[in-house]
Every structure is written in C-alpha cells, then in structure tokens.
Amino acid sequence: MNKSSFGSHFTVTTWGESHGKALGAVIDGCPAGLSLSEEDIQKFLDRRKPGQSRYTTARKEGDLVEILSGVFEGKTTGTPISLMVRNTDQRSRDYGNIAYSYRPGHADYTFDAKYGFRDYRGGGRSSGRETIGRVASGAVASKLLASLGISFCTYTKSIGPVSIENFSPEEINNNAFYMPDADAAAKAGTYLEKCMKNLDSAGGVIECRITGVPAGLGNPVFEKLDAMLSQAVMSIGAVKAVEIGDGIQVAHMNGSEDNDGFTIKDNMINKTSNHAGGIMGGISDGSEIILRSYIKPTPSISQPQQTVTSQGRQISLEIHGRHDPVIVPRAVVVVESMCALAITDALFANMTSRLDKIQKFYSK
Ligand SMILES: Cc1cc2nc3c(=O)[nH]c(=O)nc-3n(C[C@H](O)[C@H](O)[C@H](O)COP(=O)(O)O)c2cc1C
Ligand SMILES: C=C(O[C@@H]1CC(C(=O)O)=C[C@@H](OP(=O)(O)O)[C@H]1O)C(=O)O
After folding, report:
1. Which position among 80, 125, 294, 363 has the lowest Cβ density within 10 Å, counted as fewest Cβ atoms?
2. Does the predicted interface ipTM exceed a cut of 0.90?
3. Subunit notes for this chain (predicted)?
C-alpha cells in the first residue's frame, strides 16, 4: 500500500510525481461556504516554488494552480476540492544515471526495496515536489483557520551553523531565506556559497508559531495534539526531528525551570511562561504553539559519492539534475501548511467532544 492521505476529518490526498504530467491534491471534509479563490492558494504556492534565488533549485516552474472542483461562485460547496499544478520544466534525460543506481541519502534504495519498481525521474513520488499538494491544501486550511482567528508565523531559524536568537518573529525579512534577521541571512548566504563551491549542501531549522488556538484542542492519549503536529511535519521529506516548546532542552532542565506557572489575568487563567510550547497533556492550553522542524542537508549533491547499482556493482556517482543547495527556505511554507492541516483536523475532531457544545449548536 502507498498511503497518500493525511487526516481523518479534514482529509487531504496528494497525487503526482516530479516528472509526470501534473501534481495536486484532493481535500475531503472542507465545509461549504468558505470563500476561496485560486489567488488564495497561489500566494502559498509562490512561497514554495523553485527557481526564486540562487540558493534553490534552478528548475523553473510557475506552479500555477487550477481549482478543478468543489468551489462555485467563489465559495466552497462542501464537496471534494480538487487542486492541480501542471509540470512544465521536467528534464528527465538528466536522470539516466540514477535509474539503476542508488543516491546516498535519497529514497531510491528503500523505494526499490519496497516496490521493486520506481519512477526514477527526479525522485518521482519521493521528490520534494510532492509538497505542492500539501501547500495547496494548507492554503485552504489556513484560510479556514484565519476565519476563526488562528494564524501562523513561520520562518528560518537557522541554516548550517548560522542561527538567529534575538529577533521579533513578526519581522520576517524578505530575504532569500525567509529569515527574520537580515544579518543572519547575509551570514547564511556566505556559508552556502562555500557549500556550493564544494559541491555540497546544508540543512537548518524552521520555527512555526501558531496563535489563536483556544485551550482544549487535541486528545489526552494517542491523538495528542503534539503527536498529531509531529506526525504531520515528520511526514515531509528531509525532516529529521520535531520539537515542541523547549523541546530537547527539557532533558537538561529541572522541574522548577521547565514548569509553566498559572496566574489569573483579566479574569482568565493564564500562564507565566511557555516552556511547554502551548500544549499540555496532549491538549492545547491557549498559549502560542511553538514547533521547530529540523531539516537535513539536501541529499543530491554533485561531488562523487560511493554507492551501488541495483545489480550490486560498486560505483562512484556524480548526481546531475537541478537540486536545492538548501531545502530550508522552500520548506518554510510546507511546515506551516502541514501544521495548518493538523490543527484543522484536530479542530474538526473536537466538534463533538462536549455534550454542552452539541446542545448549544442544536438549541437554535
Ligand atoms: C521542498 C523540498 C525540496 C527538496 N529538494 C530536494 C532536492 O532538490 N534534491 C534532493 O535530493 N532532495 C530534496 N528534498 C529532499 C528529498 O525529497 C528527501 O530527502 C528524500 O525524499 C528522502 O526522504 P528523507 O530525507 O525524509 O529520508 C526536498 C524536500 C523538500 C520538502
Ligand atoms: C522541483 C522541485 O524540487 C525538486 C525536489 C527534488 C527532490 O528530490 O526532492 C529534486 C529536484 O527536482 P527533480 O524532481 O526535477 O529532480 C528539485 O528541483 C520542486 O519542489 O518544485
């Protein structure tokens, strides 16, 4: 089985390959009446599309979205929403040497081990280009969440050894890295130039902050909100770790440092700090949700690497084709989209969690 869907209440199925005719998504479970246009979705896709700086793949794609179904007179109809982006700049002949040899760090070997057959053109289904369907669906989920007062702020926290520490997340500078600190962005550029000169690649960290999520979203066991968010973000290619709140740092803290105190502010229960990153016991606590995603260096590099062919011959492989020297800047909106899908799914699952809420709904 090749499961291509995410979510059980707001369900997204992505489809397509990097060098096929097109890619896209089908969204099931979006309520009727949400105003939605191709421009709403295009704004998201434009943040992800390739060819926008020298630090991303040189593949030139417009990534123009077409809404094929589920929207009438500018509003969702409550029926499946089908979204499509056509591929226009495939150069499949560049991939001849990976048809029968395995790229270190990519999905070639494991895909073959599972299916015994693969579309090797640009990684096929395992290409980062699959994230088009995720981002197009994330745009719809974000529009829905925005109408409920839930918003996202996502940015590059580090690239290689260059990280940003003291900054205002709202000030995302319009640099090639979506990094809210222009000095750090310049340093990241210098670091990447060195990597590129060495025919090498770099990784980094993306931070996503979600505001406006009320207390009470998520479940106490299994489908914990932190587990749902982590699963959503870990399912993106090249993501190797996810942290919520203080994340792995808590292993080095004492309870007296890590615990967030409670207080009353404006007659409401509030916290004195947010080490937990907005989720306790698997359920949102009403404060900002803070998630970090750790992205590995792009596996396809052009310096010679040791590998084997599917026939078991040892070879030295130089990878051709057009690849991202760093994945992080283009993955910022992918992380945001997967978080939006997870929050929407959790929200819809929550609708029937309390009898008083159901009674209120039917009391009119
Ligand atoms: C937006 C995006 C762009 C990517 N670009 C590339 C790329 O240009 N070259 C490459 O080899 N891998 C790229 N990747 C990563 C691979 O798709 C990924 O490493 C591969 O599928 C193996 O999966 P894994 O790293 O999760 O094990 C990209 C991933 C994303 C999300
Ligand atoms: C084209 C995109 O990124 C691609 C992600 C990717 C990979 O292996 O993940 C490999 C490269 O493309 P191709 O599939 O042609 O080899 C990247 O250019 C895109 O994301 O739109």
Report:
1. 363
2. yes
3. Homotetramer.
